[in-house]
């Protein structure tokens, strides 16, 4: 016995068409979650981005918040930089690095990266000499 083929119709997937002899458990309704779909939480993306920001030279500390909407991420990074680091070029390097690393590690597209610098800190305390 053969099963009839059904022509593809807009909005109807092959799995949503009932085949003769198919049980209701074999049919996936349209709009249902598909197996293999991975969702990444905002907090997880923020932590990944925070670790990635620490990979850039002159960044001493970083706090990143992320918002995931669909497959698009927006990041807000607050940096503590080493003094005397060039602020503008370091922020640009962090922005580019976050876009590349978050996309590579999560598979999400980064649309916006807001970078703010909170503190400029010297690596070590100045040495005082007594004469």
Proportion of β residues? 25-35%
The overall strand count is 3
Form type: elongated
Q: Considering DSSP H and I runs of 4 or more, what fraction of the residues is helical?
A: 10-25%
Instruction: Please state the average pLDDT score.
Output: 81
SS-based class: alpha+beta
The major pleated sheet works out as: 3 strands, mixed
> What's the multimeric state?
single chain
Question: What's the arrangement of strands in the largest beta sheet?
Answer: 1-2-3
The gyration radius over C-alpha positions equals 25 Å
Please mark out the parts with pLDDT under 50 across 5 or more consecutive residues, or reply none. 1-9, 12-18
The CA-CA distance between the termini, in Å, is: 103 Å
Q: Helix tally?
A: 2
Strand and helix order: HEEHE
Question: How would you sum up this structure, described in words?
Answer:
There is one protein chain. By secondary structure, the chain is of the alpha+beta class. Helices cover 24% and strands 27% of the residues. It has two helices and three strands; from the N terminus they run αββαβ. The chain has a three-stranded mixed β-sheet. A hairpin with a 2-residue loop joins β1 and β2. The protein is elongated.
């Amino acid at each position: 016995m053969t099963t009839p083929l059904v022509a593809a119709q807009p909005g109807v997937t092959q799995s949503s068409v009932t085949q003769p002899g198919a049980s209701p458990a074999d049919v996936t309704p349209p709009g249902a979650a598909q197996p293999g779909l991975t969702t990444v939480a905002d907090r997880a993306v923020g932590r990944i981005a925070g670790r990635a920001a620490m990979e850039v030279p002159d960044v001493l500390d970083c706090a990143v918040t992320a918002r995931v909407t669909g497959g698009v991420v927006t990041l807000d990074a607050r940096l503590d930089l080493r003094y005397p680091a060039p602020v503008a070029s370091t922020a640009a390097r962090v922005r580019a690095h976050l876009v590349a690393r978050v996309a590579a590690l999560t598979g999400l597209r980064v649309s916006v990266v807001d970078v703010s610098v909170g503190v400029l800190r010297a690596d070590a305390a100045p040495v005082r000499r007594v004469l």
